[in-house]
Amino acid sequence: xxxxxxxxxxxxxxxxxxxxxxxxxxxxxxxxxxxxxxxxxxxxxxxxxxxxxxxxxxxxxxxxxxxxxxxxxxxxxxxxxxxxxxxxxxxxxxxxxxxxxxxxxxxxxxxxxxxxxxxxxxxxxxxxxxxxxxxxxxxxxxxxxxxxxxxxxxxxxxxxxxxxxxxxxxxxxxxxxxxxxxxxxxxxxxxxxxxxxxxxxxxxxxxxxxxxxxxxxxxxxxxxxxxxxxxxxxxxxxxxxxxxxxxxxxxxxxxxxxxxxxxxxxxxxxxxxxxxxxxxxxxxxxxxxxxxxxxxxxxxxxxxxxxxxxxxxxxxxxxxxxxxxxxxxxxxxxxxxxxxxxxxxxxxxxxxxxxxxxxxxxxxxxxxxxxxxxxxxxxxxxxxxxxxxxxxxxxxxxxxxxxxxx
Length: 406
Fold this sequence. Notes:
Helices cover 38% and strands 13% of the residues. By secondary structure, it is an alpha/beta fold. Strand 3 (117-121), helix 4 (126-134) and strand 4 (138-142) form a beta-alpha-beta unit.
């Protein structure tokens, strides 16, 4: 009999994990991306070149670049941000992180204490919301419409909080290809947000993880690029533009903030090989790779929206996103997507229920998120058809398992 650790575990641990049994047949959760879009050969060649040049630097933590990460990669990120987001950046103000999630944790660790207040979008990244809850933070939400966070709503929340003597620790926003709604904030709203942040003396935490995956045109100027006061903390990642498993993200902040975040990153540094490969690969290949990937994802999105229209008809309301890897869907109020996700999972279809992506979980219980990035076109069609059948069997909607005669 094995030793019983049960009495020794902390009382506030999350539920115990189950052993991983492989992905479901129709996996529409998480931020997985197109497998054929991973530039395997080019990354292999890039890593070989970087290893030949700098391989001996693996003998030291930080590869002779300090705790902020491999300097050639930070220099490359600075060049990408200036060229693509209009954001002139000193590599000294960039910190390499283990994905953007570690960036969120570090910023929260530097700024938040239990009882603090943060402003979020009313639908938002589930990982950010769950972290705020674990920090014991009170968050206030602002409505998201077709143009992203509503600035009139933000002004009202800021004014109400000021009247209560509360200054929020930051405004968290995903302005470009918002997760999960897929919306893109206009330049006018970005400027208005910055003006409000200045008026009330509140930082902005800008999460820009999906900005390179717009189907058409150039990515908008980041909010940080419009900020002259160092009031915006910015995070990005290569997880969506190159590959999720690389686990390379980054935080950009002026040195007074960076100097307080750095001591919290006590993990000895992020994976060296990943940093070396990206630093060698990106200067010559990043732009072309992203152009190809976003057209691949656009095609998968079109397949997903067509499948939803065919299988759910008017039962499913959604706006086709203009980029990214997710679709945010609203079903009739009497459909509980927590229950739908549970039943569908048992039948091989994985979806993200809307409660996990809503500041008010109850408001999201008839909504859900689907990821189309990894699945093939046929898997998308078959998976949405099965989901419609499951939803019909459980809730009676759509009225038939599909919106066409069979």
